[in-house]
UniProtKB/TrEMBL annotation:
Source organism per UniProt: Streptomyces ziwulingensis
Region feature (Disordered): 498-548, 771-792
Domain of life: Bacteria
GO MF assignments: helicase activity
Residue ranges constituting the WYL domain according to the UniProt record: 799-861
Residues in Helicase XPB/Ssl2 N-terminal domain copies: 572-694
Protein name as annotated: Helicase-associated domain-containing protein
Amino acid sequence: MVRMSTEEKPAAPRSLAEALRARDDASLAALLRSRPDLITPVPTDLTQLATRAGTRASVVRALERLDRFALQTAEALAVAAEPAPYGELLALLGGDDADPDVAAALPPALGVLRTQALVWGDDDRLRLVRTARELLVPSPQHPSPTGLGPTVREATAGMSPGRVQEILTAAGLPSTHDPVSAVAALTDLFDDRTRMAALLADAPAESREVLSRLVWGPPYGQVTHDPAAHLRWLLDRGLLLPTAPGTVVLPREVALHLRAGRAHRTPEPVPPPVAAAAAHSPKVVDATAAGQALTALDTVEELLKDWHEGGPAVLRAGGLSVRDLKRTAVALDVPEPVAAFWVELAYAAGLLASDGEADERYAATPAYDEWRELPAAERWARLAEAWLRTTRVSGLVGGRDAKDRTLSALGPGLDRSAASEVRHRVLALLARLPEGAAPDTASVLARLAWERPLRAPRREERVERGEDPRARLARWALSEAELLGVTGRGALSAPGRALIGAPAPRPPADAAQAAQAASESSAPVAGPGDRLPVHRRTPPAAAPLSAAEQAAAAGSAARILAPLLPEPLDHVLLQADLTAVAPGPLRRPLADLLGVLADVESKGGATVYRFTPGSVRRALDAGRTAADLHAFLAAHSRTPVPQPLAYLIDDVARRHGRLRIGAASAYVRCDDDATLSEILADKRAAGLGLRRLAPTVLAAESDPGGLLEGLRAMGFAPAAESAGGDVLIARADAHRTPPRTAPEPVPDGPPVPDDALLTAAIRAVRAGDLAATAPRKAGPGDTGAPPAGGGLPRTGAAETLATVQAAVLTGESLWIGYVNAEGAASQHVIAPVRVEGGFVTAYDHTADEVRTFPLHRVTGVAELAD
């Protein structure tokens, strides 16, 4: 006796909403995590979730995030019959030759499409979401990416029945009684490989040439009113079908026969590998990156030191003028694009901002002073973290936006939402290479193009024809990473690896393990229950880290970088040619005072400072005395203080302050009347408007500041004095902006929800779906089904009150309609607990909480079916 199973196979879903309803919570969470726009705001039920998943904007965003093979799978489904069995889809992608790579990669690609709700249905009835089909379906105005034209049935839709019968006869098929069967017979002929091969064997060579030009698309061509004989041969047999006067199309079935069944010329189931262009020792890479990191810190400090007393003015439209950017580039001794990068990096790190005053200028923020006190490794980590997460792109400076306006540094229009993701992805690809390997740039760009083939420019972008925005972002990311010290000699450094949270690679123990590791990513593996072999696919593109994860990664990068940086020095080497050599980075007090006492002459492995009369006078103006300077140099020099340098300090100090300038409008005071006479006799003093008031005092028409500069230009060393006769210390006042926060990155769509939000959202959606689909008890002339379109139940006030009171006694749940104080309507499944004072207190299954509803806002109530 054979026992039949009592379990029935679940019915196939008839809509996307039903397919989503059959998913478990983990599957719904994966959908919302991959398409976070579906949860903003949280949909009320699964029907609304399915509707939102089919909207054009959401589908376009989802298609843009597919890799090339997943997109090719969706394109193949767009040209397949609906619904399409798995075997037909596999044939469209793998062709008659059944490419094993395609067979292995198709299940994971189809899984991605199912996870993102772009495809639904079982393997025997696969359906592409209608909006995706409309976006990918071929038409004369929007050719298909596959290059396939319409089917025979679609192309002959407007053709006369007599003409269809003529095509059947010319193709060697018997006549039929109606156009539908005639089109079916013609389709069967084109789908039959053997009969099609026989038909095409009789085709003239010129006819086969025409087909070869149309086979890979575009499938449309132009013909004259009286076509040539080889074109007439194709038209008579339906191998070309007219779509409009003078226009013909190659039917999809004919093209697939000529393509050996493939929808794409070159399926790409396997991502292109990232090749190594050069190999270096990991120690050399880390040392080079550490040197670049030190240079980055020095450059940012030099930039903000140059803007110490208030930087360039802010343009009316925002940003830095071209002239100021050129001046900054000269001051930093770098090209203008590199200067724009350092300016934008300081801005992204929150070290630089506009002061917001009437005469708005750029200046350092209070955070800059805190940043300068950190250890060098932590300062670098702050810069690297800001670079990795910012969406501002310095490479766009000097270009033009969509409205043909010039893009300026620190100005608007430099945000690109994909910039942070591209930087993170480029570094992640570098992390997969062996340690010390520098990538081939072309292979990196090819890999990124495979991962996001549909990424299109945004409205704010102006991109030259044929230029891929992600490719530009990737090139800039590689060059900026080298400038910043994230990479060294093109290879990812150990701090850079930690910055993105990538684990340190473990070297294979022997050659056999190395060969196994190299082939592991493409070795076929079979799991229990696998219907088809599945390749171990390359891990998907990692999303940028969260703020907390990125902060932790930056801290780890700083700890790795710290031992690679040289210890700050507390000494310099003084030389007889009035220079000082700093063989490494200097400690903060020494670097600050030496920067006032001397001018930087050159940088590199060692920094060379030069002492000049002007630099010494600058130190004296800052309040230092000659004795202070002698003691400072003696304490911090590993070599004796050269005699020329000691003479220079004494000579400048002896002359410093002999002339005193105050505000009268301005005056000059000196105990040596001969010096004043010398000034009056000098022709260069004519513009100062000087006249003698007393043997030791001159009056001037210019202000004290102009008088100081004028006399210094004549070779004197005057000092300013206060109204009480004391020397004023001319220390530059550090101009700071009010507290400013770093610019927030522009998100590339809604953020990925965390687990807590996903759990709450799924619970709310399922509860709302219960309220929307729960059957209610049928009344007179009522089916008991929920109202079409999600309508609310309608009952009178007395019936509503009586039903709710009865439910309190019986403990039954009810379905109610409710309108809140703002007029928003909703429906709920509740279990009433108490009714008093015009309110019903109930457990709301929809919100999973106990709530109180005013009865006058309840539109109606219905009992639920058992």
